[in-house]
Amino acid sequence: MELSRRTFSAIAGTAALGLSLGGSSAMCVAAAGVPTGPPPGTPGADGRTHRVDFDRYSMIVDGRRVVLWSGEMHPFRLPSPSLWRDVLHKLRAYGYNTVSVYVSWNYHSPAPGSYDFTGVRDLDLFLRTAAEAGLYVTLRPGPYINAEVDAGGFPGWLTATGGTARTADPTYLRHVDEWLTAVNRIAVRHLYTRGTGTIVLYQMENEYANHVTEATGRDYMAHLYRKVRADGIDVPLFHNDKGRNGDWAPGTFDTGGERGRWLYGFDGYPSPFQTPPDWGYFGPGGIEGGSTASPETPGLIAEFGGGWFDPWGGAEFGGKGYAESRRTRDAAYERRFYLTNLANGIKIHNVYMTFGGTSWGWLPAPAVYTSYDYGAALDEARQPTAKLVPMHQIGHLLQSFPDLAELDRAADVSVGAPEIRAYHLVSPDTGAHVYVLRNDSPTDAVAAVPLAGTTVQVPVPGRDARLLAAGISLGRWTLRHSTAQPMLRMTAGRQDIALFTGRTGEETETALESPNEPAVTVLEGTADWAYEGGVLRVRARLDGLTRIAVTDKTGAAPLLLLLADDAASVRLWPRATPSGPVLVHGPALLRTAALRGATAELTGDTVEEADLEVWAPRGVSEVVWNGAGVRTRGTRSGSLRAERRLPGAGAVRLPALAGWRRKDENPESAAGFDDSAWRTADLNTSFSTTPVPAGAPVLFADDYGFHYGDVWYRGRFEGATGAGSVSLSYVTGTQGLLMAWLDGRPLGTHRMPVPDTRTVRQATWKATATFPLAPGSRSLRENGPHVLSVLVRRMQHDQDGRANDSHKAGRGLVSVAFDGASPSVRWRIQGAAAPDPVRGPLNNGGLYGEREGWHLPGFHDHDWRPAPLPNAERRQGVVWYRTGFRLSVDPATDASIGLTLRDDPSRAYRVQIFLNGWNMGQYINDVGPQHTFVLPNGILNTRGDNTLALAVLSDGTTPSGPATAELTLLGRASGGVPVTRVDYPGPVR
Ligand code: IPT
């Protein structure tokens, strides 16, 4: 029977009980002197000063322990600031309390001395949004970040400067200081210590493993430390050791005597096929490195693999697409590996990536393609995947049970199943026992866990893990044990709520201490119970949501016991508010919850039709969902439940792409093209690590200020009569190519060879393209003058993971030679025009169409000729296609839309995709594996007109495409966040 709202309120009104999350009002003092109480409330820019400390167990914020359960996302991989809020809401809802972010120097700095934090680069806005979403922030501004971005984050212009990067070289440090000054000026405005933001940790450098024992390395790190502190960053600092080697542990370099404010952190990307490693303090197999290097600081994993990046396709690289990363590092991987970390005492945990996003434009490092989905828990299209389920369960668990922030290793236990490894921990403060039971075999097994006088049988599926807790407080009740994993406890109104989770179909036993026999009512689902010897045992098979009301004889301490299978657990959304905790059940997402007087104001998403049910503090009687009042009734579960289900998302109709127009390019290949405005290649020296041949001019694009995308060369010469061939040496990143013309006639295309899998990591990506000139060929019959036109798709700069300046490897032409002649060639060079002030330096390369604004909305293509797809012509060079399309997505619907290109995979061509002038990535038809490109809302106008431009580069050996180009719906929800259009300027006239 459902009670009316009025009756419910009356009942609720009889009990005046504490509303705080966690319930227990008695604060115990921990062995280390830190009170174990509820974790500090939701962080925000609250204008108050805060203390951010740590001890060997955990971070301590305002005197309370907190486990940082963090997800990595990169604002620069989501070029639509409105959508940052969407991702941050999702992190918060799914149990993360922290977001970790790199800041990529190249994204903000088109030239020395020039730093841009506007528009899609608005770091200030990102940090504000993170604070509004209630997340702590770990800021990681490099200067080097790696991250599979161009030059590992170093700006293109740094490749043309002297001094060895990532050392104490003064020239390099001058540039570094300029960057840190710019980024720290923003960061200091968002420090949690000041109450103006939520930054609680700050990382210096990234996986700096190569000059650790040298003075230059130690001086560099000491310099960074001094600089960061001098800029006013007062939160704890750390570095992420690449291995678990103790590199940069406290005391290993000069931190100006501030030993206590430096943390040791490390990274780990264990293979899903290995046994989860013991990188913390408590591994039963002994020390495997990691946290043991720094016993006085809390276990800190700055990056733990949540997926893995995918390389380009083709036999050598073998990129298979991100479904594969998500399959091998699935939800069970997360339970096995991340619970092992917790069992090892890791208290600062960051999952790299949690939302991978898109390496749009020329952002990706050469080894990876446009999508940086990473197989992460939240996919590139912002859609939740099954991998969020364990994150949600563990994240909320850590925030609900402060016992887990301070654990010591306890006596090893034998669980009678050799395939199960058992970790046994105890809270020195509350005496609660925690077991992590991990099954490394492929078959299901049962652990027999000895607990105070009895043995509890805990099933652990093959290649999976679970956490078993005993003796933890559920408010006024104490848990003896549960074979289901605890996720949450809270006090809402007059009742305590405790939630346990597991896989569908599992038989569970939950035992509660109860000196007297309690009253038990099964409110929903099926469960049995028995009371004996002061213990209530509830047995239930997990299936959706099972609800059991337990009340002691006085009726004073009602407990709502919830048992949820995985699917049901991600329809339960706890949220702390200043007026007490709220639990929402039903919708696909809870974004925000605010209590105003008697009203619970909620925002969130639905995908299918959904129930809406709310547990809230006493006195709350009204519910508003996404701005509209919802009629509710009180339930026997102590909640308010909507009388009608919330509607699901409406249909989204996508138009077919039609009306294409095309225009052929590359006038630069014509003999008579006027290149007089191009830069003469007249430099003789370069800071590049690629040698410049003696006596030849420097031809690397970077030395002439062209740092991203394609570059053209035109070389004039005389006196080559009789030459049998011409050879062009060039350097690119992976998947680079060169195409050449002599006096306007195509000589051919050369693709940068991909070495076999064994040597690919050492490859220098330098090759020589030799084009035969038929003897007596018409063009070279005369002395000249002749013109060689060369287009190099130079791809991006290498990363500098080993700190050996590998980002300075040349890009573009190296030299030219003729067989049977030795003319001297006078070169001119042209790359990208001045960087787009809105879209940034990484948006464009130097194709003619890009220099002329063919990619921009508002460009006049009326005189372009209509060109229906599929195209199937054979031509060496560049052809552009443009069309427009109109969307009318309902404003209350968050539709995630992509562009999918498909063709016969033997066709040798590639496409740069421009949406409203924004470079959304590169499709390589005969390499793959990516076919669908996410078009983020904001860049995409979901209510109105859009301009799509495709720049197709084909090598002329096969017919070129594209064959089909269509819009694809990647997800939809009713709700979402308000989206502001990202600026999309057209051509300057
Ligand atoms: C580690 C880097 O710190 C990070 O930036 C990213 O490149 C990541 O790996 C891989 O995606 S580097 C480590 C795996 C050697």
From TrEMBL:
Annotated Beta-galactosidase domain residues: 401-572
Residue ranges of coiled coil: none
EC number: 3.2.1.23
EC class name: hydrolase
InterPro entries, alphabetized: Betagal_dom2, Betagal_dom2_sf, BetaGal_dom3, BetaGal_dom3_sf, BetaGal_jelly_roll_dom, Galactose-bd-like_sf, GH, Gly_Hdrlase_35_cat
Catalytic reaction annotation: Hydrolysis of terminal non-reducing beta-D-galactose residues in beta-D-galactosides
Secretion signal, residue range per the UniProt entry: 1-26
Alphabetical list of PANTHER family matching this protein: BETA-GALACTOSIDASE RELATED (PTHR23421)
Protein name: beta-galactosidase
Lineage of the species this protein comes from: Bacteria, Bacillati, Actinomycetota, Actinomycetes, Kitasatosporales
